[in-house]
Design the sequence.
């Protein structure tokens, strides 16, 4: 069965929403590939400071360092463990990198 084809009614017209979703998916794939390459550069020692900063920001966001992790159920323990790892990494990186991350978070909140 082809994309956008209903099994009983045949193909439906492609809408602007479909095009936007396809563009969004392509952008997400590109971002994921770039981030994967960035991590590889960091862990092989070939990263520039900008790449290292992007990886650090991604780690902090993934670990929910600046987020509320209480869910009211057992996920809280998982989230708190993830957050604790992020806080540990944040404590060990250079102060300039921590300051840049905090500055970015202030811009997002405002």
Sequence:
């Amino acid at each position: 069965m082809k994309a956008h084809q209903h099994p009983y009614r045949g193909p439906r017209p492609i809408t602007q929403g479909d095009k936007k979703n396809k563009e969004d998916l392509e952008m997400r794939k590109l971002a994921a590939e770039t981030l994967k390459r960035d991590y590889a550069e960091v862990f092989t020692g070939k990263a520039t400071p900008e790449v290292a900063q992007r990886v650090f920001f991604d780690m902090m966001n993934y670990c929910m360092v600046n987020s509320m992790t209480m869910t009211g159920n057992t996920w809280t323990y998982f989230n708190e463990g993830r957050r604790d790892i992020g806080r540990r990494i944040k404590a060990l990186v250079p102060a300039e990198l921590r300051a840049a991350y905090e500055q970015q978070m202030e811009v997002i909140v405002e």
Remarks:
- Residues 27 and 84 are 31 Å apart (CA to CA).
- DSSP finds four helices and two strands in the chain.
- Residues 15-109 form one domain.
